[in-house]
Design goal:
alpha/beta; DHBP synthase; 11-stranded mixed β-sheet; 6 helices; EC 2.7.7.87
């Protein structure tokens, strides 16, 4: 287990290289995002994703979201990108909005019991984006044990997750500490918010031009 201070250029470069190697080797890493810190693994490594769920103490009934490093990555992960999704991506990515869409049927990944969907987000954080652009899509969940408070520093994440994680990337206090992303489901005929967070219902409605229902 290693921790790297990404506020220092030399340590940041070394840490990103170590994190990329860990992800490629099937390990877990903790990384900063624009909301809370995340625990991540290669999205296409089912054993690594299972280890992520185990580290959190979380079941398959709560599948892991996927973070991407660019807009274009989404096209290869979903069945199609509807106009509503493209409008939200243009308005809020990178940023605190997660979008649930039907996944591409050809994908050989196992993120949990997704029922054929995938929860996608592009984070607004330079360290996260650099890592994602190096290793590709990552399965990333909040870096905490299930039922415990989300981590707003890598040190807080380490206190909960310990040596189940190979590499911790520290980048200081989250800019929106303890505020998770908003999750909007676009798999139905009308958009539904599964979790309210960094992006408000009013902001979503303004972009989509329709009332957005919240299930919370």
């Amino acid at each position: 287990m290693s921790t790297y201070d990404c506020s220092r250029p030399d340590s940041r470069e070394t840490g990103l290289a170590a994190a990329a190697n860990a992800v490629r080797a099937g390990g877990l890493v903790v990384l900063p995002t624009d909301t809370v810190y995340g625990i991540g693994a290669d999205a296409f490594d089912s054993s690594a994703v299972a280890a992520l769920l185990a580290a959190k103490g979380r079941g398959r009934d709560m599948p892991v979201p996927v973070l991407v490093g660019s807009w274009s990555t989404v096209d290869g992960l979903v069945m199609s990108v509807p106009q509503q999704a493209r409008a939200l991506i243009e308005a809020f990515w990178p940023g605190g909005l997660s979008i649930v869409l039907p996944q591409a049927p050809s994908l050989s990944w196992d993120l949990g019991d997704t029922r054929g969907t995938v929860n996608l987000r592009m984070p607004l954080h330079p360290v996260a984006l650099d890592l994602l652009r190096e290793v590709g899509p990552m399965a990333v969940s909040s870096a905490n044990r299930s039922g415990q408070p989300p981590a707003s520093t890598a040190a807080e994440a380490e206190a909960q997750l310990g040596d189940s994680v190979s590499v911790y990337l520290e980048s200081g206090l989250s800019s929106q500490a303890a505020v998770a992303s908003t999750i909007v489901d676009l798999t139905q005929s009308h958009p539904r918010v599964l979790r309210e967070g960094a992006v408000s219902l009013d902001e979503l409605a303004e972009v989509l031009g329709v009332h957005v229902e919240s299930l919370r």
